[in-house]
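Hello, quick one for you while I still have it in my head. Could you read through the record and tell me how the tokens relate to the sequence? No rush at all, and the record is pasted right below.
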Amino acid sequence: MQVFTPDDITSQTPNKYLGVLIAAKYARLLNEFPRDRSSSREKKLTTRSLEDLSSGAFEYRVVPRKRPGDSA
């Protein structure tokens, strides 16, 4: 099992909390794609998403949340 430290995550994100949120959303996205279920040695999606995030395999952007009273 691979262990990810906060330094691994913050190399690609501003802070570790945002990094974990991004990795979780990416894991949910990976879950939508078909997988080969016959492989018993396949990595978990959370591990794969943290690996991809720490290596810079994908780009992300943070979209500001719209609040109910804001006009723009």
Notes: The chain is about 45% helix and 0% strand. Residues 22 and 60 are 8 Å apart (CA to CA).
